[in-house]
Structure formats: structure tokens, C-alpha cells
Amino acid sequence: MNIQTKLNKFVRFSLVALTATSLSFATIIPAKVAFAEPIRQRSVSPGVINEGMNGTWNLQWKVNGWLHRGRLRMDGNFGTMIVNVTGPNGRRVYAEQQMNMVPNRNGYILKGSRPTYPGSNAINREYQPDSFYVESGYRGSWKMRNCSDYHGCIPVRMTIIDR
Question: Which of 9, 36, 41, 100 has the lowest CB atom count within 10 Å?
Fold first, then answer.
């Protein structure tokens, strides 16, 4: 075999290898890459109703001897609240609910929905969803009342924990 024949074989082998490599890359790399977009929750109003409520809050109110302690975490118009209720006889009830901010004439309402046992999706039938009326108070503070069917609204003590 002379040098010319060897060179021709080398060139043919190189072309076959190059073609095979090009074809393999063409099948691996897609022409267009698609990414899933996250689901965006929409509030009742186009913007955040009250950015001053963003963060984590301790809430406390008392109804017929039952002490309610809630940890409310708000981000925009949506949030989560875990409630620990202690009865006069020492009985305890725990509930977690999703909160939604809805505008009102002089403030807004925080509506709870579908109370569950904290950390699960099991519905807690011992706890009714909360409904809080919130309005701006003196010097930028907030006044909150729980109006969850207690034959009137009960004052709620609010303490900010983290913004």
C-alpha cells in the first residue's frame, strides 16, 4: 500500500467520523429549549393591598374563655396562619389555614380557608375558618378584630415578629 492509498483511506475515515459525530450532536441538542413557567396566583386586586402586613405576626384573642394564639405569615395578598387554641378546661385544638387579603371600604379583610391539621392536608373539622377585619390605626399601627361569627368582632392583639 502506498502513501497515496493510505492518505485516501485516512481522509475517508475522517469524513465518516465527522459525519457520524455531527449526526449524533444533531440528535442530542434540541433546536429549541422550553421551560415550564411557574403558576402565578392572582389576587382580587391587581396589586398588593397592604404591604405593611408582609412578614410574620403573633396574634392573640379570646372567645368565651378559649385563648387563641396565631402565627400569621403574609407575603403580598396571601399568607398562612397556624392557630393554637386552649380551652378553659385545658383542651387544645390546632389548625392551619391559608389566608387571603380582600379589600374593604375602610381597610381590608383577611379571610381564612379550609382549616387543616398543621403540616398535613387533613381537614380539621373542629376549627372554623377565621375572618379578620384590619384597618390602619394611630401612627401607622394596625387594628385587627376577629369577626368569625362570634356575634360581633373580638379585638386581636398583634405583634410583629419579622418583616
Answer: 36
CA–CA distance, 161 with 163 (Å, rounded to integer): 7
pLDDT in tens, the chain (163 residues): 666 666 566 657 665 555 555 555 444 444 444 444 444 444 444 577 778 889 999 999 999 899 999 999 999 999 999 999 999 999 999 999 999 999 887 789 999 999 999 999 999 999 999 999 998 777 767 789 999 876 789 999 999 998 7
When divided into structural domains, the chain yields a total of 1
Question: Could you tell me the pTM of the whole model?
Answer: 0.68
Does 28 map to a domain?
no
Query: H/E element holding 8?
Result: helix 3-28
CATH code of the domain covering residue 145: 2.40.128.120
C-alpha distances in Å from residue 71, one per residue of 25, 36, 46, 56, 75: 54, 33, 26, 7, 13
- Domain membership of residue 138 as a residue range: 51-162
Say if strands 142-146 and 92-103 run parallel, antiparallel, or are unpaired.
unpaired
- Is 72 a member of any domain? yes
